[in-house]
């Protein structure tokens, strides 16, 4: 697409701004972000029986450091579209992520690593009622528990440096990942190119690998962003003036045609 640009660096908020290297050709039309509330909210667990590989590894949200299964965590969620930002900026939301890792070769012993094979389902739901209204809007009420954004992806990765305390997780439609999004607030084009980017900070106890090369279990603070090309449409907004003009013209032509037919004498 002509609007596609190469994105070499993205910035996502994780307490403070964190720069993370993104995949080449990543989508740049960011429409939503989320930031962590409190401490560690994601965990990677390598429970594979083969220590040289990551079979049976999982990556999921945790509401407490000791949790061993996916749970919902509080985050601050924002839509970036000008028409939604007045209503949904840093609102409280429940975030759930549950991912598996396909068997993958051992990670490097030093320097940068990429743990590929990440597949997941995720969701962000509101914790409060939201009413969108005003000039230019179709008044719309969303009850607590509404779907801010949910979806699934495969072909994602976790990236970092061995002994490092920060990294990232990516899934990019332009780099071969399969991604789908749904939302009560937005509608996505069927052929949209989608991206998901997540910054990982305060990694404990640092990124490391086992003696056989598997990525060790870790916890981290995760914040992130979502992108789409083309940008999604906002469900609660009134159509643009140009669209209204087309609708009015269309209705007028239909009415004119019906009037002409009614005047034609019966044979």
Automatic annotation (TrEMBL):
This is Ice-binding protein C-terminal domain-containing protein. It comes from Sandarakinorhabdus glacialis. Keywords: Signal. Residues 1-26 form the signal peptide. Residues 237-261 form the Ice-binding protein C-terminal domain. InterPro entries: Ice-binding_C. The keyword Signal applies.
């Amino acid at each position: 697409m002509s609007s596609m640009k190469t994105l070499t660096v993205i910035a996502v908020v994780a307490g403070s701004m964190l720069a993370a290297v993104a995949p080449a050709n990543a989508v740049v039309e960011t429409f939503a972000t989320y930031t962590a509330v409190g401490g560690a909210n994601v965990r990677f667990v390598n429970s594979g029986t083969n220590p040289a590989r990551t079979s049976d590894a999982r990556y999921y949200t945790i509401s407490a450091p000791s949790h061993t299964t996916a749970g919902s965590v509080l985050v601050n969620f924002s839509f970036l579209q000008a028409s939604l930002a007045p209503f949904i900026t840093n609102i409280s939301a429940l975030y759930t992520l549950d991912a598996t890792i396909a068997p993958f070769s051992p990670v490097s012993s030093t320097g940068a690593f990429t743990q590929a094979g990440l597949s997941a389902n995720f969701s962000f739901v509101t914790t409060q009622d939201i009413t969108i209204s005003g000039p230019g809007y179709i008044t719309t009420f969303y009850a607590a528990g509404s779907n801010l954004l949910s979806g699934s992806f495969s072909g994602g990765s976790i990236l970092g440096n061995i002994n490092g305390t920060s990294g990232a997780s990516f899934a990019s439609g332009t780099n071969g990942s399969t991604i789908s999004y749904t939302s009560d607030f937005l509608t996505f084009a069927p052929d949209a190119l989608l991206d998901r980017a997540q910054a990982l900070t305060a990694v404990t106890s640092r990124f490391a690998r086992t003696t056989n090369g598997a990525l060790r279990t870790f916890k981290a603070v995760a914040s992130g962003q979502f992108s789409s090309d083309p940008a999604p449409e906002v469900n609660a907004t009134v159509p643009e003036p140009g669209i209204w003009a087309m609708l009015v013209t269309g209705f007028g032509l239909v009415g004119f045609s019906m009037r002409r037919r009614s005047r034609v004498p019966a044979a």
